[in-house]
Protein 1
Amino acid sequence: MPIMKIPFLLLFFLWEAESHTASRPNIILVMADDLGIGDPGCYGNKTLRTPNIDRLASGGVKLTQHLAASPLCTPSRAAFMTGRYPVRSGMASWSRTGVFLFTASSGGLPTNEITFAKLLKDQGYSTALIGKWHLGMSCHSKTDFCHHPLHHGFNYFYGISLTNLRDCKPGEGSVFTTGFKRLVFIPLQIIGVTLLTFAALNCLGLLRVPLGIFFSLLFLAALILTLFLGFLHYFRPLNCFMMRNYEIIQQPMSYDNLTQRLTVEAAQFIQRNTETPFLLVLSYLHVHTALFSSKDFAGKSKHGVYGDAVEEMDWSVGQILNLLDELRLANDTLIYFTSDQGAHVEEVSSKGEIHGGSNGIYKGGKANNWEGGIRVPGILRWPRVIQAGQKIDEPTSNMDIFPTVAKLAGAPLPEDRIIDGRDLMPLLEGKSQHSDHEFLFHYCNAYLNAVRWHPQNSTSIWKAFFFTPNFNPVGSNGCFATHVCFCFGSYVTHHDPPLLFDISKDPRERNPLTPATEPRFYEILKVIQEAADRHTQTLPEVPNQFSWDNFLWKPWLQLCCPSSGLSCQCDREKQDKRLSH
């Protein structure tokens, strides 16, 4: 080979290597829980300190109309993982409860669903989920782990299988208060009144009541009380635990330095994979209640315990950004930051403290499809490819991450199913100025609630509501009497014709349009209805993962620490820490 050709060959191979790196970046997907779009500084907050999230935004693209596919945790995360509306996989509920509340439920992300983790793992990526899963655990036995992250494409899992709940932290109240009232307190009151009435009638000689009835009522009251006390005692250890892969390592979980532990696990995973492409999903427990923060952040913000939690999460984001800089991986890493849905505006503690975040100028919040419930932070940074300092106002979805990362990893999209997400890279790279989503469908659980239409060659963004939640108290910004808004029956108001807004001119959704204010009113609604009809025709019947059979607790699916007996308590985190010292 002539000597002169060697430098050209070296340049060619170097160019090939750089091109391959740019097309197959490391990928870090960061998801907050219940963070409002009005919380980060880069989205307008002037009092919460989020310098690291802001640094991420200034170094990349800020999406200002980024939308969760559902305003609730479980269905939103199912859509995020699969790039598909959750109703397609049965991960949207037809009942009041739209998320899993027990680790020993048999419902979860079906085994035939394909996550982006599966696609990237098949392309040689090392994959990890650190933090919250909330997409189920087992199907038929406690060891089949059919819904577990490791069965959905992740090589490594460290975190919680369910979600952070008030019941997981002593002294923070319960999400079951309404259930306790209906199933425990009211029945006990009825039994008590009945016993007193029978006793009085018996004493007065007006009615002879057999002793068996008294004993039966007392037994029933004792049974209800025993079950209630057992639930209070066992719910926390049975549902609030930390896992590493398939093993329980802390039961019940401790909140001590929990964000720090998640951050260390994420950092160690990155350090283990500096020579191979990796996918890291860092799914924070912040800022879902129960709120928590370490001593370094407690009492430091201007927004109480909620602000402390946000600022601790921001610190964690900064640790990951700093590590990427130290390892010289920043230029070859795509980072995405978002929230699974809007802030939970009804979260107020028993002491009257506001434990929910800010949705900025937008109406509503978590569990409803007003903009405050679905418009979430959306930040992407990839220094080698994406120009810094951009702001994109086009409608995008958290489902878009699936086809985006699949294409970047060189993975073909599945051809045997509909993928509702769209590749974001043409928008991010400036090759397209218009979203690929002409229509987006907003579901309240499994009910089609609203449709968004962004016509080609138009600045208008029409949004039509088929029904809206009944806020209570009337005139408030949420459903405070029920803690979240529900999707059917007396909890909603149906609209015929649908309630129509132009989001581009009325993002606060305060002024519904009429035939008098919008000449094309009926024409717009006709196009939207036709799109909704076409969409619903693409929905096959699938098993309902939230059926009562799938949703309820099953003792044979319950996970406990090995050798912990009936207590279901252990702390291998503390034991491992002691051994390391």
Protein 2
Amino acid sequence: MKPSLALSGGANFTRNFWGKYHTSFKRRFSVPSYRLNPIVTMATGSGSLVWFRKGLRVHDNPALEYASKGSQFLYPVFVIDPHYMELDPSAFSPGSSRSGVNRIRFLLESLKDLDSSLKKLGSRLLVLKGEPGEVLVRCLQEWKVKRLCFEYDTDPYYQALDVRVKEYASSTGVEVFSPVSHTLFNPADIIEKNGGKPPLSYQSFVKIAGEPSCATSELVMSYSSLPPIGEVGNLGISEVQTLEELGYREDEIAEWTPFRGGESEALQRLTKSISDKAWVANFEKPKGDPSAFLKPATTVLSPYLKFGCLSSRYFYQCLKNIYKDVKKHTSPPVSLLGQLLWREFFYTTAFGTPNFDKMKGNRICKQIPWNEDHAMLAAWRDGKTGYPWIDAIMVQLLKWGWMHHLARHCVACFLTRGDLFIHWEQGRDVFERLLIDSDWAINNGNWMWLSCSSFFYQYNRIYSPISFGKKYDPDGKYIRHFLPVLKDMPKQYIYEPWTAPLSVQTKAKCIVGKDYPKPMVLHDTASKECKRKMGETYALNKKKEGKVDDEDLKNLRRKLQEDGHEEPTKIRNQRQKLN
């Protein structure tokens, strides 16, 4: 049975669809098998357990709605997963091994808000800590609930986890309800309509998908009350913890993201965004100012959609209602509704593509002999490339956990096919850790797109690290905010401070090479080199019909070296010209 608003959604389809991919994924993430008691106690209670992971909201939450119906007791549970939340002092920025502290803080704020909403309805959030599967098994054993409800999740980590939890629940007679509500469409349905494969272009996806069923559905937006919590036993239940209680020190963070987590904030931000009907009707991506930071040029609803603080289905309905009230509006792919459909496209493609988060073994990803340069990667990550536009964007990411989509395009292009020719997976890892809206499917899809590894193949179109930002912000206000070392640099030099005479640098209290780094590469030289490499790589992929193996990449790398197309040392030495 495919995942839907039906019982035990997704288990059988997932096992059949992923096959060996599941096995390799479980090895990679070490998802433990549960040691079940030889004597299995069958569910006898009249309660329901609703397991929150994403979907951190009350409005339009089918799992919560179903769990509350006809239940004497309701157990709303969230599990603090050490895999995601545990402090890692060795990480390059404050946070866990998987997430920067901004996203952890956003999550805790979202949980606090959810807990507050539940308390107003006569319930509360039961917070436990541990490996989620093991914790859920203990809860089911202790509470003897009759049903387990949680939102269906297409991420591989949860796919593997959910199969095990469902199998245990079914073995004890617990009814499992796992509805698709994080997305507008069921990815499995789209793949089935497309003959068993995900559509690989936005246009084909939109054509196959049609209109989602939620377009005309009546969504449950609120409750007068919820069933009370029954006896919880001794399972180590706590309130929502603070950052300090998780081991983090807030005073170590120089600047926090201005975006607060939670359903209440999500609905307020949505209301404010759609109150300007003309803005909604005329929204056209990729237009927008990537340098606008005091008042971002977008809705900044992506982190709320990522955590499910905002229902994408409710957002969709709101947009459709506005479009009915205006004479003219933009259309997908550039409209605001079109952005929701981009999200659906990447979710579907990711769900139907084994190894979607890798170059190797990924049938839709071009095989490219990317460079290995940890020093250059670290300089890019830390905002020390010597290009103020690129560095300001990366500092905003480090401090806020968010930046405009065009800013993301610029730094991703610079790292990969534009200048440094470093593997998109390494850039993806930095974004995955630091973005508050980091989303497995969308993040991987966008990095493949922007590196011209998949979806988009015009590798000669490169974002300039100098002129692109200048056309939006000629005075460099964005750079001055995030790179205060350059705050006194005259505007004619703000994007290229190395061109300023030494007297100007001295007056601005910023000597290039001392107070701010020299450019790590010459853009004109580096971009030409990247284009050559991409051209030869595309030719090889075409010749081999996409079946490029490790030996092919090794030979191509050697050829590029022999032809003089791969000379990182020479490129670094070009910086001497800037002295």
Protein 3
Amino acid sequence: MEVDEEKPQIIAENPNENVIRERNAEIVSGGNVFYNPVQEFNRDLSIAALNVYRQRLTKERSEKALKKQRRKVKEQEDEKPTPVLEDPPVYEAGTRYEDGLRILEALAATGLRSIRYAQEIAGVRQIVANDLSRQAVASINTNIRHNKVEELIEPSHSDAMTLMYLSTQPEKRFDAVDLDPYGCPNRFLDGAMQCLVDGGLLLVTATDMAVLAGNAPEACYVKYGSVPLRMKCCHEMALRILLHCIESHANRYGKYIEPLLSISADFYIRIFVRVYVGQAQCKMSMSKQSWIYQCTGCETFTLQPLGITKPNPTAGNPQQLKFGIPTGPAVNSQCEHCGHRHHLGGPIWSAPIHNPEFVQDLLTAVQETTLQSLGTQRRIVGVLSMVQEELQDVPLYYTPDKLCCVLKLEIVPMLKFRSAILHAGYRVSYSHASKNSLKTNAPPAVLWDILRSWSKRHPVNPERMIPGTPLAAILTKECTAVYEFDELHPEANPKSRKSALSRFQENPTPHWGPGTRATIMIGDNKLPKSYRNQNKKQRHKASEQQAEDTPQTVDDHDGDVEHLPKQPKLEATA
């Protein structure tokens, strides 16, 4: 389905250079409070998700009230007519409703996100825009008055954790909590779990992708309680590590999470989860986490769940489950494919990371409602379409380029590889996290067998067949089946790719990224700072070395220049 890009609205020139516009919101700032225009996709997606969440929450509350009325009528044995479900109330954006959502933006900075929430989310009761910086709160107050949303937004000058801990009473809890910190969000998760209502929505952003992607496993364990592995699927692993971290915080208070949407975009990950209360459901958490084994040679990975569930035959209720601990390990001491040892990572969230019904509602809302005019609507449609196509029951993915790199083969074209898997009777999909992803339920042995079949068409250089390497161990085995590469399978080319949707956007601007704290990441001031910080340490060392090598000179009374010998450095003595 082809989606035309929305034409931007023409806005007249503003004489005030400090005014930043995003849709209908205007931010007045002197440049000392953080703002990053690249995060517009994040804000647009959050607005769409909160609108859909409000619709679902209103429907759930109406159905709950209806069940309560029917139960009351049945207990009283009245002859009154049975209550029926009424049409849900119609809400408008920008208007305060006493039965609406109460939203907390714990780290508001300029307040742009809160202002857009007030202007674009229908059915809001109150939005608390909090920040620890006094300068940021002053900017929030200015922007609230400038946008005339004083009725909906309450500024707050407080520590985010303290504010959430002080909001644990039932009448003070929030329907939605938005955490968008600079870096790791783990310190805020404990308070967020306690200040959310039952069934509340938690929106979390993490920008420390180097830690989550495996560059610093020791730091990731300290922050998230999980060990990452250096893999091609590191972006999806980052999502699953964060989900594991959120679930572990929820379980401490007898709560559990339901992931609605988990997105890896640009330089960050964004997660939307609902948090429910339920001691019985918390017992399922162990079976949703897994260790991951990764071969050090061929990089094949294997997941082993921390727990297992199975029907309890002795119970009268067939829905009752029995919990157990799996036997292990799931792999031998040496890889069955290449004979190398394994790395052990995790635990990670191995259950589905999206709710298909929520994603469908979100996609419908973005395409058919007032959300069509979002600035990044075209990209949102492309990403959500890919999310719909993902295999929900298959954690992580491979990439053809890495698989072929292990065997020093010519890279198999993506459609040919997907066709071979589909013709073999397995399922396959892309992942929204990588344009070269290969998410499939085919076991690794089948993938290596497909590549052995491909090597017969495109032989490997015999000089590379070195004993002891993964290449030699895998390619010396015989193919166990014949695979079809030439005939394109009908499902090999997904609908989102056929329709040329905006699936993987290029970098939007030069020098883009997470940005710098308390800085307006737009305009001409950003580029000089970016250049100035490049190789700063190396340039400083070079200048110090040059100063040491340059001989000192003094002028004598006759005007001649006398070169002084270089003075040795003296060590300090006690």
